[in-house]
């Protein structure tokens, strides 16, 4: 089955008899993502303009002064009020006045610092004086907050852009699934696929049987040597044997044993294993860690499979298979490998292959969706949504 039929597209297809599942929010809110991105960029522009009004360096000075003032108010609110520590009271007033003295009179918010200083410039201070100083600093704090707002606005734009990019990736995947669905749905499902299925299935069955015999009977070092050679070819997808396992079996007597026996030995206790191999400790250290690899060795990489690959791929694959299979299989199997060329050269091969893919991958419901035009409508909707998101992302 190709993809999720309702992952994208909020417009109903021509097949009104089918009730689509609710669309996931991830695909339904593309318009909301565009709005969020636009709003985030507007917020960033406003924040940058607010900072530019006075300049970032000037606002940094204000922010630093506000921070110093807030720290003093917090530090001395207990010790410099009421009948507290007179020394603390003197220190506080001197340091607070110093903040104002360090500022130029044309610094934005300068008046706020003056009013705050006036609030705490008395013979005796109370907590309410400190609170009035904090309130007096509000205009300067608002100026300083413009820098934080610019940073937050930039972060909001970054997150909005990332959300759009993630949605674009999802829509790309969805569009690819829908394109595949439409392409397969247009295949000729009445095509006589057995004309290429029969020679491929005959070869695959024969090579599986031959490899099963090879795996069951051949010395492990010989089998792994074959797999190593096959792994070096581009069209036969074996994983190369672990080098330490190959090196051990190359010289150890255990290399004369077939793989099924080695796997059985790997489960033996040390005392029992001593009756079957010369060096149980080395055998266990070299073979047991690779038991899964040995268990999974099969003929699958030597098969063509169904649906088959493209004709060109099958031609290249066939050349490698003939050479490899001839090293362990009877001539009858090699002959079936050679016959794959005739299948690849079938004049209708690609049409038959496409029909085989459609038969294997599509459900009856998907075939109907293509036939009714619903799949094409979903594809158009996904492309339109993607275009809108891409345009919004590029529109700085």
TrEMBL record:
Residues 30-57, 161-188 form a coiled coil. Pfam families: DUF7118. InterPro entries: DUF7118 (IPR055542). Residues 1-27 are annotated as: Disordered. It comes from the Archaea. Keywords: Coiled coil. This is Uncharacterized protein. It comes from Halobaculum litoreum. Residues 1-16 have a biased composition (Low complexity).
